[in-house]
Amino acid sequence: MTIFSRIIAGDIPCYKIAEDDEFFAFLDINPVNWGHTLVVPKRETDYIFDIEDDELGRMMVFAKRVACAIKEALPCRKVGVTVLGLEVPHAHIHLVPLKNEGDMNFANKISDPDPEKMKQIAEAIKANF
Ligand code: 5GP
Predict the structure, then answer these.
(1) Which of 29, 39, 81 to mutate to test the pocket of ligand 1 (most atoms within 8 A of CB)?
(2) Which ligand 1 atom lies nearest to the CA of residue 82?
(3) Tens place of pLDDT for every residue, the chain, 129 residues?
(4) Which of 14, 87, 94 is the best mutation target for the ligand 1 pocket, counting ligand atoms within 8 Å of the beta carbon and taking the most?
(5) What is the pLDDT of residue 22?
(6) Which residues contact 11 (CB under 8 A, 6 or more apart)?
């Protein structure tokens, strides 16, 4: 079981944004920018491009809904999309609100993000989902 499956199961706490039958969205615990969100399929697959076409399509549509909610909730120009997958072997899409290019710098994460601010951001995004 991956750490993301344990989060989805509720065994590990997270700042949850949304879920449906197949997908789950929550704040990244080490955000590159405030509102940095992960979209994860409940079915475990390591590499995103091993996901079967229909499921991958539905995952992107779910991510779009989450991105729209982020854009409504937080001041940004656009919501950026990245796939890395180098750390956690459970496919996921990173969604990051952007004002400029530097807001998507994975080498420059927010250190020790304030839990109260994370909670407020998650609530604001959730309210717009
Ligand atoms: P990647 O696999 O895309 O290279 O990176 C995994 C991402 O998941 C990282 O941005 C990291 O901060 C995030 N992450 C790893 N473990 C946890 C966790 O337990 N909870 C949350 N919310 N995010 C995590």
Answers:
(1) 29
(2) 3
(3) 999 999 999 999 999 999 999 999 999 999 999 999 999 999 999 999 999 999 999 999 999 999 999 999 999 999 999 999 999 999 999 999 999 999 999 999 999 999 999 999 999 999 999
(4) 87
(5) 98
(6) none
Distance, in Å, from the CA atom of 19 to the CA atom of 87, rounded to the nearest integer, reads 22
Name the closest-CA residue to atom 5, ligand 1.
Answer: 87
Task: Say how far apart CA 87 and CA 63 lie, in whole Å.
Answer: 20
Alpha-carbon distance of 38 to 36, in angstroms, equals 7
Closest CA to 20 of 58, 51, 74: 58
Q: Which residues contact 125 (CB under 8 A, 6 or more apart)?
A: 17, 35, 37, 66, 69, 70, 73, 74
Domains and CATH numbers, the chain: 3-127 (3.30.428.10)
Give buried/exposed letters for 64-97 (b at 16+ CB in 10 A, else e).
ebbbebbbebbebeebbeeeebeeeebbbbbbbb
